[in-house]
Amino acid sequence: MGTEAGSSDFFELVWQVVRLIPRSRVTSYGAVANYLGMKRSARMVGYAMNASHDDPTIPAHRVVNRNGLLTGKHHFGKPDQMEKLLKAEGIKVKEDKIVNFEKYFWDPAVELKL
DNA sequence: TATTTGACATACC
DNA sequence: AGGTATGCCAAAT
Fold first, then answer.
1. What is the pLDDT of residue A105?
2. Separation of CA A47 and C1' B4 in angstroms?
């Protein structure tokens, strides 16, 4: 096998959780980080998302910041792409922010509670 | 090996 | 209400 580092386990771990996000649901970077036991590494979750381009099966549009704000929309092909995807799932977005965020919020630490 | 970066979060002004 | 500052921690350079 090549010496390629492949994807660090950390990224894959984040991706796995994000992949488990049900449709019409959203979560926050901190929630995922918290579930992984790295509550202080919320930034790393976003970082992992940036690398998610290697895996299109990751619904990165379902991951937003704690305010339900589409902070990462600029990282999609088009800034409107993220909003579009969320709206396609029945999630309303107002001013780049998810409406009723708490209602759509999906916390892995609760839903996947071990 | 050291420095910079960053799709966050929290605190402060 | 909105901008600035700091902490956090791993990846990228």
1. 94
2. 14
Q: Say how far apart CA A106 and CA A114 lie, in whole Å.
A: 15
Domain definitions of chain A by residue range:
8-105
Closest nucleotide to A76: CA versus each C1': B7
pLDDT digits (tens, 9 = 90+) for A26-60: 999 999 999 998 888 999 999 999 999 889 999 99
Instruction: Tell me which residue has tokens 């381009």.
Output: A53
Residue nearest to nucleotide C12 (CA to C1'): A47
Look at the domain A8-105 and name its fold: Arc Repressor Mutant, subunit A (1.10.10)
pTM of the model: 0.89
CA–CA dist A29, A77 (Å, integer): 20
